[in-house]
From TrEMBL:
2 residues (Tyr-53 and Arg-56) present in a large hydrophobic pocket are probably involved in substrate specificity. They are important for desuccinylation activity, but dispensable for deacetylation activity. It comes from Larkinella rosea. The lineage of its organism: Bacteria, Pseudomonadati, Bacteroidota, Cytophagia, Cytophagales. It catalyses: N(6)-succinyl-L-lysyl-[protein] + NAD(+) + H2O = 2''-O-succinyl-ADP-D-ribose + nicotinamide + L-lysyl-[protein]; N(6)-acetyl-L-lysyl-[protein] + NAD(+) + H2O = 2''-O-acetyl-ADP-D-ribose + nicotinamide + L-lysyl-[protein]. GO terms for cellular component: cytoplasm. GO terms for molecular function: histone deacetylase activity, NAD-dependent; NAD+ binding; protein-malonyllysine demalonylase activity; protein-succinyllysine desuccinylase activity. HAMAP family: Sirtuin_ClassIII (MF_01121). The gene is cobB. This is NAD-dependent protein deacylase. It comes from the Bacteria. Substrate binds at Y53, R56. Its EC number is 2.3.1.286. It is found in: Cytoplasm.
Length: 233
């Protein structure tokens, strides 16, 4: 089976009712990003940060995968599909996708502030002060904050380089290092970009823009790729 790698961003989650990372006013749910998504914000006010992600988690529990997520799942019948997502929600997993790499962490997991290898599932939607790891340190959201390294980036580079097809969906391609993954695609690998707002990507001969939302654009692209895989049978 040919390998499809999907790079997904906030746009696909927005179609399921989850707000994108930063509103036009520069705030995230009325909070300064520096206050809720940086190590310094955590050091200054851990209660604010915990409550902020508790509310994000509470919203995400009720969110359902949309037609775009389901189209990517459908492709697994005909391709080896890996999704590299910048999103911290679990909508790809809810849709049934089997291979999902979270570049920026996972909303429904926590990790130790002493040993970052100690990662736990969050039961329900609430993570509180006093919730501790097995070594006795406070648990924090398992999110890659601004100023922190992206641990899964090396894996993402290898996956992208091995792709036979790259699909980019719901991302402005403006946030690094994730946006740099396109540079690791092998020459002549087909790249499909699904987004109503065409990202600023330098011209490539193998680049196809589908200027639609994920729900319609991915569904149409999946149909085309399935025809390609089956010869129209």
């Amino acid at each position: 089976m040919k390998k499809i790698v999907v790079l997904s961003g906030a746009g696909i989650s927005a179609e399921s009712g989850l707000k994108t990372f930063r509103d036009s006013n520069g705030l995230w749910e009325n909070h300064r990003v520096e206050d809720v998504a940086t190590p310094q914000g955590w050091a200054n006010d851990p209660d604010l940060v915990l409550e902020f992600y508790n509310q994000r988690r509470k919203q995400a529990i009720d969110a359902k995968p949309n037609a775009g997520h389901l189209a990517l799942k459908q492709l697994e019948k005909f391709y080896d599909v890996t999704i590299i997502t910048q999103n911290v929600d679990n909508l790809h997993e809810k849709a049934g996708s089997k291979k999902v790499v979270h570049l920026h962490g996972e909303l429904f997991k926590s990790r130790s502030t002493r040993d970052e290898t100690l990662v736990y599932d969050v039961k329900g939607w609430e993570l509180k002060r006093g919730d501790r790891c097995e070594k006795g340190s406070q648990l924090r959201p398992h999110i890659v904050w601004f100023g922190e390294a992206v641990p899964m980036m090396e894996d993402a580079v290898e996956l992208t380089h091995a792709a036979d097809i790259l699909i980019i969906v719901g991302t402005s391609m403006a946030v690094y290092p994730a946006a740099g993954l396109i540079d690791y695609v092998r020459p002549r690998t087909p790249i499909y970009v699904v987004d109503p707002n065409v990202p600023d990507i330098r011209p490539r001969t193998n680049l196809t823009f589908i200027p639609e939302p994920a729900t319609t654009g991915l569904s149409r692209l999946a149909e085309q790729l399935i025809v390609n895989a089956t010869g129209g049978v």
